[in-house]
Specification:
Helix content: over 70%
Oligomer: single chain
Radius of gyration: 17 Å
Strand content: under 5%
Distance between the termini: 30 Å
Number of helices: 8
Number of domains: 1
CATH superfamily: HPT domain
Largest sheet: none
CATH architecture: Up-down Bundle
Shape: globular
CATH class: Mainly Alpha
Order of helices and strands: HHHHHHHH
């Protein structure tokens, strides 16, 4: 590995690293979608930052559409199980299990642009790092309410994407 990004990475950091490693085709750098972080009020309104999905979809080498399909499929399959495992960890008083589950969910949520869900998981991870699950129940309930919004939005993205190009 020749470079490093800490997880969850943000588009600005990825945009700084990619030009060092991608071929410098005349317009590749200019077309990379740079944006500033969204405000908390914007995050609360929408379950997904569509710009994060667009950044993946529009990767300069043309592999973005297939990669996005795989990411969405993986998230739709894994996220409900991960959240159930986090609930089980809280119910069992297992701070380590909650920490690990929240970390994984935070990273995958950030990757698909589920900023609010990633922020909630980040809070759960930090709480669990203290070695206790005290106070995690209410935060996990918010997380459980946010996940269905994200799943619906990702299914809609998958349907729109399927209409744009033939499935593989």
């Amino acid at each position: 590995m020749d470079d490093y990004l800490s997880k969850p990475f943000v588009t600005d950091c990825l945009s700084a690293v990619l030009p060092r490693w991608l071929p410098h085709a005349g317009t590749a750098e200019a077309s990379w979608p740079l944006h500033s972080p969204r405000s908390d009020s914007t995050i609360a309104e929408q379950p997904l930052d569509r710009r994060a999905l667009d950044a993946i979809r529009e990767l300069p080498d043309g592999s973005g559409v297939l990669l996005l399909r795989k990411l969405i499929r993986a998230f739709l399959g894994d996220a409900p199980r991960r959240l159930a495992a986090m609930r089980a960890a809280v119910d069992a008083g297992d701070a380590g299990g909650l920490r690990d589950g929240a970390h994984r969910m935070k990273s995958s949520s950030a990757t698909v642009g589920a900023d609010r869900l990633a922020a909630l998981c980040s809070e759960l991870e930090l709480l669990a790092r203290s070695g206790s699950v005290e106070g995690a129940g209410a935060l996990l309930t918010k997380t459980e309410a946010e996940l269905p919004r994200v799943l619906v939005a990702l299914r809609q993205q998958r349907q729109r994407q399927g209409r744009r190009s033939p499935s593989r």
